[in-house]
Structure formats: structure tokens, C-alpha cells
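If your schedule permits, I should be very grateful for your opinion on a structural question. I have a record of one protein: its chain in single-letter code and its fold written as C-alpha cells. Would you kindly read the sequence against the C-alpha cells and tell me how you understand this chain to fold? Thank you for your consideration; the sequence and its C-alpha cells are set out here.


***
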Amino acid sequence: MTANVVHILDVVAEHIGYILNEAAKKAGSDKFVVEVTKEAEEAWAMQTAMRAAMMAAIIGCTPSYITREGEAEKVVQGADGLKMARSAPWGEGIIDYTRRIEAWRAAGGLEGIEVTA
């Protein structure tokens, strides 16, 4: 099963809406700042990097946004390779991604997010 862009945008918009709604409750105000903690950012980036190899199938595809206009075909090593892997699309697909963020929301508490008023 493949995802379409509209579905992905809907999943992301729902997630952002949840975060903003919960942050407003936590702040007790409609004026607040939401920031991801450095630890949470690092943990998520490494989870993404661990799945980056699953995106190898796009090598050889027509240059586009997803292949970074053909840049995906270049061999990248070291710090540059890790940076690319950490910023790759979620390698297990939209269904797995949706399940993960739904589980995070169900746990409550905005784990990994700091809210200041």
C-alpha cells in the first residue's frame, strides 16, 4: 500500500494540531512557545537514520524532490552521509509513522517537547 501526498499532509496536520492544542493547555495561555528538546531531536534523528537504507530503492528514479534532483545516486560517506540519513523520509512508510505518532500522543505529556508561556 502506498501513501499519497494529501494523506501524508493530513497525518502531519493532525499531529501538529494535537501538539499545539496540548501545548496551549499546558501553558494555560494562547501565547506559548513549543520547542523539541535536544535529546528528543537526537533520538528521532537516529531512529530515522537507522531506517534510511530502506530508501535505497529510490536510487535510479527520475530526478525529483524525493531523490534530491538525482543527488541520491551519489555515494556520500562520513558526517555528510549521517546528516543525509538523519534527515531521510521515515523508512518504514506512512502507516508505521502514523502508528508511532499515535502511540506517542496516547502516552500523553508531550514527551520530548518543552512548552513555555
